[in-house]
Amino acid sequence: MKDISFKVSDIKLVNSDTVRLVLTSEEILPKITAGQFLNLEVPDNSLILRRPFCIYDYDNTSVTIYLAVVGKGTLALKNLKKGEILKATLPLGNGFFKINTYKNIGILGGGIGCAPLFRITKDYKDKNFFAYLGFNSKDKALFINDFKKTCKKTIVATNDGSLGEKGYALDFIKKDIANFDAIIMCGPHGLVKAAKETFKNISIPVLVSLEQRMACGVGACLVCTCPIIADEHQKNKRVCIEGPVFDIKEVVV
Amino acid sequence: MIDLKVKIAGIEFKNPVITASGTFGFGREYNRFYDISVLGGICTKGLTLEPREGNAAPRIAETPSGILNSVGLQNPGINSFIQNESMFLNSIDTVVIANIAGNTIENYCAAVEKISSADCVDMIELNISCPNVKEGGIAFGVDCSSAEKVVKEAKKLAKKPLIVKLSPNVSSISQIAKTVENAGADAISLINTIGGMAIDYKTKRPILANIYGGLSGPAVKPIALKMTHEVSKAVKIPIIGMGGITKAEDILEFMIAGASAIQIGTVNFFDPNAGFRLVNELTSLLKECKIDRLKDLIGSLIIN
Ligand SMILES: Cc1cc2nc3c(=O)[nH]c(=O)nc-3n(C[C@H](O)[C@H](O)[C@H](O)COP(=O)(O)OP(=O)(O)OC[C@H]3O[C@@H](n4cnc5c(N)ncnc54)[C@H](O)[C@@H]3O)c2cc1C
Ligand SMILES: Cc1cc2nc3c(=O)[nH]c(=O)nc-3n(C[C@H](O)[C@H](O)[C@H](O)COP(=O)(O)O)c2cc1C
Ligand code: FES
């Protein structure tokens, strides 16, 4: 992990409240793996903490992130201009683990939570990925064309049926569960909770990427913990360094 | 050659920059960003006799120019600390301060006795000011007679210099400071976090699961500076000042107010290279101000 100076090389509003941000560095970036995140400086002096975002895509010198505007920090980031300089610490957290042991992998994403799931489908060309992406409505749908390029099948579900299937992505992946050796997922708390219940009796691993409020992002301050069952005991583990990816069986929601 | 050295209770620090308890783990995390041996010292996460799981999350809320935290002393316990961190801490060339907390006098004493046996520890910082645990902690730091008792007993067992860390959540910090000085403290550090709260008006709920938390960061600096000055007038033992330090200018201000060294906490979260940066900025700033010996600044406040 390293603290790196980036230049905003591209910024675009992709829907009413989501921004695609491309950050480019003059130095070669440390090695990143799918599912890791960065901690990004916010261009507003009254906000001192950085904001964590997962790395959607990357190459040797640049990273792409998608951010949903939900508060002051993300609003300030939305107003960045091309050429502005800001720092980010990366790569943080563990990516999706043990992927090599699986062949057919189900992807379950909810809204902006689809973001950490894309890069893995691009990296493992020898695997079969099946994506189930859920959004509120057509105008909030994201990433679909990217997933279509890397996945064997991409099912889109919207709550109001304005795009793809009507209903929840979770219900669609549930029907096909017999086809997978593992599921990797990310999404809002409600989705994680429902998935925990839905998947409670299945034998394949379900890896979930969690979110928690953070400060340091590197494991030093202990503010980002989630209760996790380890060796039959509940422990507070740091999402930033022991996660953000956990087996859903161990997650207490 | 600029002389940044300072001395506290017989221990020499190569510079006054020490990382604050609870913001720097046991040093390993930030050693990946820079060689932490450049620091004057590091202070460990608050340690207790037994492991603690801390409070429920969310444990952090951001407020204007500050943060509220309610970690609640999550730590692996002193035994595990000694077993797992000694080798690393012995391998770095900086003063190591162990921050110790407890919930009864006996418990504090047992913790102090145990940590005294750790060869990786150079000094002990007795935390009688943690606002985030239900029993103990701050209760000892807001009342003169219990502060006196715990410091007196701890001092008997401490085989390393004893720093006592004070809470700002009191009506007279100089009185507490005098009390702990008389009880045998070798140095005083201040301030711990200031009790605070954040509410989400939309949900009508507190942001922290613990409801209340402790405020730190730039927002608390004026309060910390005043308390450093008040305490420096009240006691003769050295003071380690902290609260909202983010730049070299802040360090000079705390030292002018009476601090012999300083700690940096929250700044590490938004600048992982803060320790390294501050040591360098301090050297440049002293050059610019034509000050050769940092020590000469301690308590040099001019009032007229
Ligand atoms: C590992 C990780 C990866 C993430 N990846 C993405 C991503 O790819 N795209 C995206 O849009 N969002 C992502 N988030 C959530 C994002 O960090 C928050 O939405 C953002 O910090 C909100 O900042 P704000 O100032 O706009 O909101 P405010 O609510 O004003 O923020 C106040 C404080 O709460 C924290 N906070 C608020 N919501 C969250 C949240 N859901 N998770 C963590 N901290 C929060 C903020 O960081 C800040 O410290 C991720 C979070 C984590 C932990
Ligand atoms: C997340 C966090 C955890 C902390 N944990 C401890 C602790 O365990 N023991 C302690 O004495 N102080 C603890 N503190 C207080 C700091 O050491 C310091 O006194 C305070 O943050 C003020 O300095 P700052 O404004 O530079 O952060 C903690 C502070 C923060 C932000
Ligand atoms: S954010 Fe500091 S330990 Fe995770």
Walk across the major sheet of chain B and give the strand order.
Answer: 3-4-7-8-9-10-15-16
> What is the CA-based Rg of chain B, rounded?
18 Å
**Which parts of chain B are unreliable, with pLDDT below 50 for 5 consecutive residues or more?**
none
Q: In percent terms, what proportion of residues of chain A is strand? A: 35-45%
Work out the helicity level of chain A. Answer: 10-25%
Overall mean pLDDT of chain B = 95
- H/E series of chain B: EEEHEEEHEHEHHEHEEEEEHEHEHH
CA(first)-CA(last) distance of chain A: 29 Å
Strand runs of chain A, count: 16
The percentage helix of chain B is: 25-40%
Q: Termini distance of chain B?
A: 33 Å
Q: Judging from the principal axes of the Cα atoms, what is the shape of chain A?
A: globular
> What's the helix count of chain A?
6
Output the number of helix runs of chain B: 10
Rg of chain A over CA atoms, rounded to whole Å, is: 18 Å
Look at the helices and sheets of chain B and give the structural class. Answer: alpha/beta
Which H/E pattern describes the elements of chain A?
EEEEEEHEEHEHEEHEHEEEHE
Q: What summary fits the major beta sheet of chain A?
A: 7 strands, antiparallel
The protein's oligomeric status is: heterodimer
List the bound ligands. flavin-adenine dinucleotide, flavin mononucleotide, FE2/S2 (inorganic) cluster
Secondary-structure map with pairings?
The complex is a heterodimer of chains A (253) and B (304).
Chain A: E1 2-15, E2 18-24, E3 37-40, E4 51-54, E5 57-58, E6 62-68, H1 72-78, E7 85-92, E8 104-110, H2 118-123, E9 128-135, H3 144-150, E10 153-158, E11 165-166, H4 169-175, E12 182-186, H5 189-198, E13 206-209, E14 225-230, E15 233-238, H6 239-242, E16 245-247
Parallel strand pairs in A: 8-9, 8-12, 9-10, 10-11, 12-13
Antiparallel strand pairs in A: 1-2, 1-7, 2-6, 3-4, 3-7, 5-6, 13-16, 14-15
Chain B: E1 6-8, E2 11-13, E3 17-19, H1 28-31, E4 41-43, E5 60-63, E6 66-69, H2 78-91, E7 95-100, H3 105-116, E8 123-127, H4 138-141, H5 144-157, E9 162-165, H6 173-182, E10 187-190, E11 194-197, E12 199-200, E13 205-206, E14 212-216, H7 221-234, E15 239-242, H8 248-257, E16 261-264, H9 267-270, H10 274-288
Parallel strand pairs in B: 3-4, 3-16, 4-7, 7-8, 8-9, 9-10, 10-15, 15-16
Antiparallel strand pairs in B: 1-2, 5-6, 6-14, 11-14, 12-13
Helix pairs in contact in B: 3-5, 5-6, 6-7, 8-10
